[in-house]
Records
---
Amino acid sequence: MKNEQTLVNKKSTFQLHLYFPFILAIILMSVLTIYSMVYMQENTLHKSKASTTEQFKRFLDNKIDKEAAAISEFIRFIQNREDIARLFEIGDKQSLYEAIEGIYKDLHQNIELTHMYFIKPEGKVLLRVHDHKRDLDTVKRMTFLKAKEKQSLFYGIEFGVKKNYTLRVVTPWVIDGRVIGYLELGKEIDKIIDEYAELLNIQVYLAVKKGLYSNAPEFVKENLKQNVQTRDHYIVYQTFDVPDQMESILNGTIVKEEIRFDERDYSVSKEILSDVSDNELGYFIFLDDVTLEHDIIFGSVKVFTAILIIAEIMLVVFGFKLINRKEKDIYVLTSELNTQKEELGLFNVKLQKLFDFQKNIVILTDGKRLMMANQAMYDYFGLDDLEEFLSHYSCICERFIENDNFFHLGKVPEGESWAETIQGLSAEKRIVAMLDDELSTHVFSIALNQFDESDYVISFTDISSTMLEQVKLLRKVTHDKLTGALNREFLENNIIEIIEEAKQKKLGVILADIDYFKRVNDTYGHNRGDEVLKQFVMTIKTAIRHEDYLVRWGGEEFIILMRVDSVESLKKATEHICLTIENDDYEEVGSITSSFGVTIYLEGEGIYESIERADKALYQAKENGRNQVRII
């Protein structure tokens, strides 16, 4: 009876731990689903409205081009009037005004023309038809200056003296090859903006920087007091009431791309307002009414939420029943796991003691992450425990020094762990090098045993002293004593492996010979000649890759073996070596050059056949003037 009551209490505990997180997860999932739905629909809406500024730019540019084309026709019509041309040329302002006044009024009424100037060649205004009492001021606007510079029609949008945003079309007036002056017609763009706003069913505002009005006429400044203004801008044009958020829109502090104004929702975008000189004057502001779209979005969200709530209730009911059914199984399984955990903990303690008895470094790993190590490893790396090691590294393999004489991570095929790779190697290739806490290099022989299906117990035995002697001896046997390049004996003993390495590509054979080396020995002595040979080898090593082979063939001749993709890439690499040598500076001697014979090893032939072919190419290089690359 007591055991049954205990089980009931345990089940209640499990119900408390599982049921409420289950409900919380459902609620969070629902909230995220609804939020995601709203976000995606809002994002789609914003993307659909984001093209407003681009549409406006295209519309405005197209409209300006069309308006300018139309105005230019009227300019040609006026310039073809001989009477007007004669009055303009003789400078009879009053008669010119009387002759042109009717035409201007017709254009003002029919195409809403607002500006007409007759400008003398030097830039002084003879007649301002729309304001004929003003004259003799000098025009310095970009449209006029460009028309004068190019001596052809030029147009663009500019601010005038009254700070009105106007399309100005200016063209030279030429009679019998003489420029008698310039004719400028202009049109304020308010109507163009009205047309755009009506076409796209949006609200448009024109905000201009206050600083641009510092030199405006007093009556303009007085008129601006009537306009809505923010800290830095005047709203000089609008198709709708100005929203309270305009200050935030202009200074960029608006929280999102939408505002609520006059009980409507608007998507907000803006475009830089500039003139023909690309001077930034302020902004075009666009408000696109998205109230209907929002109503549709939130209406669909309400319906979806109702459906989601019903589904959640059903899910909670079924989930509760399922949880109750599984609680007893969970309790039994948890009890078993706790027992296994206690047994595993005891086993780990014993295993750690066994590890710590070993003088060699001993670890337990799956080849990717270090799971256990003995005190010898912590002492070697100067660390306190496994936790400190894992705070810097995940695997001991990250401490392996990358050196071709030893095993390292660069030799591990893709998809394998280092433990799997090294398990398949012979004992003499299971050698790694690592730095200790004092940055001294030690060499270790690795012994590896399978611990279970995926884990390995690996032992590292320090063989540094033995390995160091072997490396020194190997270098003496395989390297040229004077220059440090590889020697003929190395090439003869390793050529089969080198050819095998290059099977996936091509093996390039380069024979290099120092030009006029005998002169160096005769002029500066053999000691200086030896120094030149040493520096020559060092220079070539800087110009080739780590995996390429540099062999002293005899005297001042050297062989370079490299894997390449094509003859062209081999030639390019050799020319790089040639140029590097030519640009180097040798003490006392100055600069030296070298000639190169180049060929590709052909499958099945002996390496000496390839070298003989390279030697023929080298002979050609020397015959043709030296300091060059020849290929056979």
---
Amino acid sequence: MKKSEQKKQVNLISLIAKKHQLKKVGNNTYRVDPCPVCGHFEHFTIFAETNTYHSFSGCCKGGTAFDYLVEVEGLTQNEAFHEYQKLLEVENDKPPSQTPIKKEVKVMDYTEWICSLYQNTTKKGKQHFLKRGIPNELIEKYKLSIGKMDDRECMVLPIWEKDKVVYFTTRFLDDKLPKYKNASGTAQIFNTDYLNDPEKSIVFITEGIFDALSLEAMGYNAMALGGVKQIDKLKEIIDKSARDAVFLTAFDNDEAGQECKAKFSYKAIEIPKQFKDINGWYVNSLQNAQNAPDSVSNIKESIDIQLETRRQPDVVSEYLDKAFHSDIKEFLSHRDKRTGFENLDLKMKGLYPGLYVIGGISSVGKTTFTHQLCDQIAEQGSHVIYFSLEQSRLEMVSKSIARTTAKINIDDAVPSVFIRSGDTAIIVKEAIKKYRKTAENVNIIEGNFNTDVKTIREYVDAYRKANRVNPIVVVDYLQIMPSINERMSDKQRIDANVTELKRMSRDFSLSVFVISSLNRGNYLSPIDFESFKESGGIEYTADVVWGLQLEAINDPVFYKEKSVIEKREKIKTAKNAEPREIELVCLKNRNGTPSFSCGFFYHAKYDFFEPNFYNLFKGDMVKTI
């Protein structure tokens, strides 16, 4: 005979009655006072229908007659088994395994107990609910009661399903901790019956039951999670119900509440910041009603307006009222941000949130240019996160030091390769000291082939929250970023990564720079959109597109069809020049002059770009072929 079969044959009522007096408290429900475990009253209950016991104070787990022998009588597993044998007059059976047997999850029925508790709740006791804004009709509907738990008086909040109380939670009336205590067993969600009621076309989701009851008091339908751990469970229940209903969240204004809100795709009701939750907002309105009769109607009017906008969640009229002017103010705050290159800043007139793509062939210094730009932004006080997917932190930092030596005195400047080799010249020490303040705002992440857009987004989001800033973000470079889907082609991979970087810049209001290489077929022609590798996503998604090219590319020879050898010789000579003359060509700019060019001297030996003001006003129209 199996242990599970033995349990069914022992009458728990008879077993307990041998040592304790039982009193009937409901239909097939009995109580033992005092509790045989903790000695307290009004919580150790036996359910004859299921042949189980339960403690509403949580002093024991509850369960079957076998569990009673172990948990209450204090017998070991083997002793309990032998006692079972005596009770059942069963012989020659093996002791139960020491491995715990997984119990079948059963939904408890607390209906009789709750109804009894409600009948014994006095008018004085109901005042605790009335003070929270809960009217008598809801106290009656949900059988809100006053009881005792762990010798502390508490409000008992039942959770009903189909005319049956399947769970409850309590709120203690004193100021001690903990404030709340739930029934043992599997937690349940408040008012899930609404998911099976087609007349409930609009349903609110709150954290706590008092918030849901406050909404109910104003005439709305509301469910309560009863804890953030219930989010996935509620999502699953909603999916299974296949309800064509409008759901709105009304979570608390604290950090936990905002995290809850982020996990639902439903529109969230905005609660004024001076209130922690819906119940606090509602109670405040009730308290002010004597002096301002419209207080309660005002909160309802606010919610009704938000409900109306739910039917058109992206209606422009709401944006005009709530966000238009603040967005303009935030946008204008970026017009004073500078790249640190005077000639470029005269053209850009600000560094705005968006996706910036910087392209160029090898030897034009696209990484050095972008890195110097970041140092110059950091020098102004902005935070920078540089994802270097190819070069090490040592390489990048030694470039910054070499560049600083060039800024101090280019005649005595020290190349980065010498600095990495341990050069300790006086100017190097001076450069390190000078760069240190800037370095406090620069973060270099040595990436690898596993650093994808998801990893980058998670890092940036965590940095934003920890430092409460919106950093400048750089990804170096686009073509070696891995795919978020291994089945994508190279073009699909690059387009997807560009799209996700653009989304990050928009979602977090960031300036995001990504470096891109060019098609080899365009190495001997002036730069244009066709020059960018798999450039479809770049052309249409990026907010700003800059191309770096050798100034020599503007020589008339590059506009001839048959002069490949001569072109290559020109490029070779330009690459070997010191400094190299580089032209930045702006192909796209959503926030300023759409197309322009400006020149630079590139001291490759010292990783240093210097504006070429001679080229500053050579024309705002970009040459293309």
